[in-house]
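Q: What would this chain look like folded?
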Amino acid sequence: MPFDAHRAYQHVQRLAFPRRTGSEGARQAADYVAAEFARLGLAVEREPFTFSSLPQRAGKGGLLMLGLALLGASLLIEPSPWGAVVLALGSLGLLPLLTRWNRGVEKLFSWGPQQPGENVLARWGPDGAAAEIVLLAHYDSKSQTFPLALRVVQVQVTLLLMLAVVSLILASALRGPPVVAPAWLKGGTLGVGGLLLLLALGRTGNRSPGALDNASGVAVLLELARSLTASRVGGLKFTFLATDAEEEGLAGALRYIQRHAAEHDRWRTFFLNLDLVGDEGPLRIVSRYGLPPLSTGRRLTVALKEAAQEMGVPVREVYLPLGAGTDQIPLAAWGFEAVTLQHWRWFGPVLAVHSPQDTADHVSPAALRETGEVVWRMIEKSALTSGSSPSPRGKEEGGGN
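A: My prediction, written as structure tokens:
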């Protein structure tokens, strides 16, 4: 297999420094990726863009609204049970807006003060190929008050508690006598509201070296670009894309698809996002997200699973947990098949993501190798070149006018 894990790990080591969007570190990372593409003889395209932080602020505002709605419901449990029900059910109604990409939200990225970002890409392969694969990875990093794993757990626990509290409020209103003591119900509602407010108040900084998230993904992307072009794989067209501002609301992926959607055939273009691919454990294919769950790439998922299983690599198809986001989301919203490939284990380095502890010594060359080789196997099989007719998912979601 032509994928060289040692080369990939060297990329991780060279990129593992704080590089939040707009910082000097981000500029250095973009320069590094561009130089590596150029060294392979590829024509490099650097695409500056701007974006607003308004969508992220709106998301935090939504969490605040949820928290305040539940706090209000807690105050109405005794004097007005049905008023509490209205507020509690209204809070549930906000969940789809907060957990699934809304094409209307895209307009918010152009409102208000703008921040700079830059995508870096290169293309290889013939026009008119049977299929096009866009391999992408975000090169920016960030630190947060709550590391990623802790924030995801906070969101999951808060959601479960929220559903339990809303159910108890509704049951109490329907039955007359409270199902549980009003004081306990009020305390539970206050607690969930407080957790939502805590999530909304987290702060973002530039202290994480971002080795696992996502120097590992960029490293695999660069090594795939080298090995694919050197081996002259035929029959497919490739775009190698390093996105910026993934940590700022997925802005880089959005700006890319807004600019280039018309260049890609929706039925023959597949976006494979590489994110968190540097830890031991099973290979994970993120193919669904949001409430209710939305599938984002059926054919691509099948092709990756078949390749991994043929190689004896443990693989799992997983749901993107609430409280996290990946670049596949805006791409899928524009009607393209898009999944994210990950490689990590519970209670491993993933616990350090979005913290200063996300360093290169936590990244496993073996995980980089498995990820790269599975992608290579899928490409060698040309599993995506058949069945190019429009899928039902694409018809339903098609966008990008």
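The longest strand covers residues 115-124.
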